[in-house]
Amino acid sequence: MNKLGERFLIYGTLAMLCALTAVVVDEAAGLWSFIQVVAVIELIYWIASPAAKARSRGW
């Protein structure tokens, strides 16, 4: 699976879980949860990405 497929799977699953949260608790809670988790995932991706590229080059 390529990176685009992985992101689609992760964010799709996350959207379903946050939609369940929105139904059970509140729409704002579901949306806010989705935004927070996406921000953390993207932050980790951007922080970890250069290190992975540097190791593959042998630095």
* Mean pLDDT over the residues: 86
Largest β-sheet summary: none
**Residue fraction in strands:** under 5%
Rg calc? 15 Å
Distance between the termini: 27 Å
Give the total of domains. 1
Order of secondary-structure elements: HH
- Tally the beta strands: 0
> Which structural category do the helix and sheet elements fall into?
mainly alpha
Regions with little confidence, pLDDT below 50 for 5+ residues: none
In DSSP terms (H or I, runs of 4 or more residues), the helix count works out at: 2
Share of helix, binned: over 70%
Molecular shape = elongated
Outline:
This protein has 59 residues and is mostly helical. It contains two helices and no strands.
How does this model look, in words?
This protein has one domain (3-49). The chain contains two helices and no strands. It has helices at 3-24, 27-57. α1 (3-24) runs antiparallel to α2. The longest helix has 31 residues, at 27-57. Keywords: Membrane, Transmembrane, Transmembrane helix. The chain crosses the membrane at residues 7-25, 31-48.
Task: List the keywords.
2 helices, 59 residues, elongated, mainly alpha, single chain
Helices and strands in order:
Blueprint lengths: L2 H22 L2 H31 L2
